[in-house]
Specification:
The structure is a single chain. Helix 2 packs antiparallel against helix 4. An eight-stranded mixed barrel has the order 1-2-4-5-6-7-8-9. Helix 19 links the parallel strand 8 and strand 9. The protein is an alpha/beta fold. It starts with 8 loop residues before the first helix and ends in a 6-residue tail after the last helix.
C-alpha cells in the first residue's frame, strides 16, 4: 500500500494568511476554544474510546475554515449572504478545503488513516457545519454519524461566533451561554455543551482571558478608518507632487474594506456625510503629524461624493476641519467623480469658487471625453482633471482614445487646467503621455499605496537626506 502523504502545516499556515484578518483570528480563537473543550473531556471514557489524540484534534480545528480561501470575499459570512447563490457559495467552503490541501500538500486527507492528524483535519473541515439533528450541511449527518472531531469543531466554531466574532467589547456571556443551551441537542452535541455549562464559571474565566488577549490585539490593529496614499509623480523627473488619499475600514468582522464598497450603504443610511468627514479628518490629522514645512509637502487629494459636496454646509465644514488641524488649504485638493456631477439643478461653479477662495484646489475625477461638463469648462474654474482609468489602459494602442485624450489636453491647456492620469502600469504609457504633454500621473508603476506610517518614514528618509520628496 502506498504511503499517504502528510500535511505540511507550514504550507497551510501560509494559505491561512491569505484570509482576511478577522477570519484568521476566528481560526486561532476556535483552536483555543477547542483546546479548552478537549482539556475538559480528555479523561472521559467515551473520548478515550474514540482513540484520537487531543493535540491532533486541536491542531485540526485551526484549519476548519481553510476552504474560505477559495471563495469570494463577499461570501465569507453566512449572515450577509442575502441571495441563494451567495449562500451556496458560502456553503461550498466545506468542499473547497479538502482539494485545497491536496493542491498545496499533495495529501489526500480523506484517505488517510482514521486516527491520523490528516484525517482529523478532514473531519474538522467537512463536519464543522453539520448538526446533530441532521439539519446542517454539507451532508446532513446526524447524531452518531458525526465524529467527535466534527462535534468539537462545531461547538468551538459556534462559541466563537457567540462570544467574539465582530466584537470589540465584552460580550453578554450569560446571554451567550443561554443561547448555547438552546442549541444543545439540535445543532450541537448535548454532552459537550452540558460539560461546558456545568463548569460555567471556569469557562467564564477562560473567555475573559481570551477577551483580554483580543483587546491587546485590537489596540495594535487600530480598528476603524485607515487612510492610504497613492503617489502621483511628475513624468519628467518622477518627483512626487501629490498623494491621492484612499480610505478603508479596518473592521473586526470583515477586515480591511475599501471605502468605495461601503459608500452605497452609507448613502442609503444617511451615514455618508459622517463617514467621509471622519476619513477627511483622519487625512488632515496625518498631514499635521508629518511635521514638515508646508513648502516641502506635496498636495493631498481627497475624493468626496457629489451628494456630500452639495450639502449647504460643506465648505464651512471643510474650513472648520482645516482650521482645527492647522492645515494650509493649499496642501489640499478635493475631487469629485465626473459621473456624479451631472445634476443640472446644482451650480457647481459656486461651490468650486468657494473652495478655491479658501485656498483648496478642485479636481474632476474619472473625466470622460463625453462629459457634459466640457461645455461648462469656461465657467467651472477647476484646477485639475484626472482622466478615466480606461484611457491609461487604451492610450498606447487605441487611436480613438489617443484622439480623445489629445483633444481634452488641448482644451485643458487653453483653460489653464492641469491634466493628471491614473492607473498607469507601463513605461509605454508614460512615453505616450509625455509626448502628449501630460505633466503628472499615478498608478501601479509608481508603487503601491502607502500607509501613514510608510508615508512618514519615506518622507523623513528623503528630507533628512536633503531630498526633494520624490
Amino acid at each position: 500500500m502506498a504511503t499517504i502523504k502528510k500535511i505540511s502545516k507550514q504550507k497551510l499556515n501560509t494559505v491561512i494568511k491569505g484570509l482576511p484578518a478577522p477570519v484568521q483570528k476566528h481560526c486561532k480563537r476556535t483552536k483555543m476554544l477547542a483546546a479548552y473543550i478537549v482539556e475538559q473531556i480528555k479523561t472521559e471514557e467515551w473520548f478515550l474510546d474514540a482513540e484520537v489524540k487531543p493535540n491532533f484534534v486541536v491542531e485540526a480545528v485551526f484549519y476548519h475554515d481553510i476552504g474560505k480561501c477559495k471563495i469570494a470575499e463577499d461570501c465569507l459570512y453566512f449572515d450577509h449572504c442575502t441571495s441563494q447563490e451567495k449562500r451556496e457559495t458560502y456553503e461550498s467552503h466545506v468542499f473547497q478545503g479538502v482539494p485545497l490541501i491536496v493542491e498545496e500538500c499533495g495529501a489526500y486527507v480523506a484517505e488517510s488513516p482514521v486516527h491520523s492528524f490528516e484525517y482529523c483535519t478532514y473531519l474538522a473541515i467537512t463536519e464543522h457545519h453539520e448538526h446533530v439533528d441532521g439539519s446542517g450541511f454539507p451532508y446532513g449527518k446526524r447524531g452518531e454519524d458525526l465524529s467527535i472531531v466534527g462535534k468539537i469543531t462545531a461547538l468551538a466554531n459556534v462559541l466563537d461566533h457567540l462570544l467574539f466574532v465582530g466584537r470589540t467589547d465584552w460580550c453578554d456571556f450569560d446571554g451567550a451561554m443561554a443561547e448555547l443551551e438552546k442549541l444543545a441537542g439540535n445543532e450541537l452535541d448535548e454532552t459537550l455543551v452540558a460539560i461546558l455549562l456545568d463548569r460555567k464559571e471556569a469557562f467564564r474565566e477562560f473567555v475573559s482571558y481570551l477577551f483580554d488577549s483580543e483587546i491587546r490585539n485590537i489596540k495594535k490593529n487600530s480598528y476603524g478608518i485607515r487612510v492610504f496614499y497613492h503617489p502621483v509623480v511628475l513624468l519628467k523627473n518622477k518627483k512626487t507632487v501629490m498623494y491621492r488619499a484612499e480610505y478603508r475600514l479596518n473592521d473586526p468582522y470583515y477586515g480591511m474594506v475599501d471605502g468605495a464598497a461601503v459608500l452605497p450603504i452609507a448613502e442609503q443610511s444617511g451615514q455618508i456625510f459622517k463617514l467621509e468627514r471622519l476619513a477627511f479628518e483622519k487625512m488632515c490629522s496625518e498631514i499635521d503629524r508629518l511635521c514638515w514645512p508646508d513648502e516641502m509637502l506635496p498636495t493631498f487629494t481627497f475624493g468626496f461624493s457629489a451628494v456630500h459636496v452639495q450639502k449647504p454646509s460643506f465648505v464651512q465644514d471643510i474650513t472648520e476641519i482645516l482650521n482645527a488641524y492647522e492645515i494650509n488649504p493649499k496642501l489640499v485638493c478635493i475631487s469629485v467623480k465626473d459621473a456624479e456631477m451631472q445634476n443640472p439643478e446644482y451650480s457647481w461653479t459656486e461651490t468650486v469658487d468657494a473652495l478655491r477662495a479658501l485656498g483648496v484646489s478642485f479636481m474632476i475625477d474619472e473625466f470622460s471625453g463625453a462629459s457634459p461638463l466640457l461645455s461648462a469648462m469656461d465657467e467651472l474654474t477647476v484646477d485639475r482633471i484626472c482622466m478615466k482609468k480606461e484611457y491609461s489602459k487604451k492610450i498606447t494602442f487605441n487611436s480613438k482614445t489617443q484622439s480623445i485624450v489629445e483633444g481634452l489636453i488641448q482644451i485643458a491647456q487653453k483653460l489653464g487646467i492641469e491634466i493628471v492620469f491614473d492607473a498607469v502600469e507601463t513605461d509605454d504609457t508614460v512615453s505616450v503621455l509625455r509626448q502628449m504633454g501630460v505633466p503628472a500621473a499615478g498608478g501601479p508603476l509608481y508603487g503601491q499605496p502607502l500607509s501613514f506610517k510608510e508615508l512618514r518614514k519615506l518622507m523623513d528618509d528623503q528630507y533628512i537626506k536633503g531630498g526633494d520628496g520624490q
